[in-house]
Amino acid sequence: MVGSILIIGDENKQGLLLKDALKKETHFSLSLISKTAISVSAIVEKAPDVIVINPKTTYFEIMDLYYSLKKEPQIIDTPIVLLMDESEMKAADLPSGIQEVLYRPLRLEEAVTRIQLLFKRIHKIDQKNVIQRGKIMIDVAKYEIKIGEKKIDLTFTEFQLLKFLCTNPGTVFTREVLLNKVWGYEYYGGTRTVDVHIRRLRSKIEGKSSTFIETVRNIGYKFISD
């Protein structure tokens, strides 16, 4: 699986251990940042597929961060994993947007497995790494795209762009976020690159009776499943 995970909170070693375990056992892109050094806008810009909160703060501060994240349309549906001491959990009343709770000290093998299963469930990826959105089928392992029974030939970047949009249907992404997620944080090209690739991608997957990518004026693009 290819995706990105953002771990917030490096005040204890559990976040670092989880990052190292995920890096060793998966193909996720991983970031570990201090809670005190991050802003909600920076989290939105990173557009992670899964957010892990590893707090060394009170329950109320955790909830303040949670509700701040849920106010942002671009990450409102992003699954959140919470790392907690089991004693804290007994008194916690957690909202439904927190998809998983992992107890400290972590059992790393179990933690990695549960995050992988969460990613598959949220992004509708089966055991064969297949994403199905309406008529579009993406075989992640084979780098293969089909619309119905027709195989579509895409460049690597077009494939990555379509895969990212398909795993986040209905979510509007700015051109800047798409540059970061598909081309990478080190890419310094202009946002026109996104427009060019979107246009080429549409010419290959869309027809007179089918539209999969919608332009949201003055903002960016989103995937819609017909």
Which structural traits does this protein have?
2 domains; 8 helices; Rossmann fold; 12 strands; single chain; alpha/beta
Layout of secondary structure:
Layout: E1 4-8, H1 13-25, E2 29-33, H2 40-46, E3 50-53, H3 59-69, E4 80-85, H4 86-89, E5 98-104, H5 108-122, E6 130-133, E7 136-139, E8 144-147, E9 150-152, H6 156-166, E10 173-174, H7 175-183, H8 192-205, E11 213-216, E12 220-223
Number of strands: 12
Distance between the termini: 25 Å
SSE class: alpha/beta
Q: What is the N-to-C order of secondary-structure elements (H for helix, E for strand)?
A: EHEHEHEHEHEEEEHEHHEE
Task: Offer a concise description of the structure.
It is built from 8 helices and 12 strands.
What does the model show?
This protein is 37% helix and 23% strand. The chain is α/β, with parallel strands linked by helices and 226 residues long. The strands form three sheets. It has a five-stranded parallel beta sheet. A four-stranded antiparallel beta sheet has the order 6-7-8-9, with helices on one face. Strands 10-12-11 form a three-stranded antiparallel beta sheet. Helix 1 (13-25) crosses helix 5 (108-122) and helix 6 packs across helix 8. The model has no long low-confidence stretch (mean pLDDT 82).
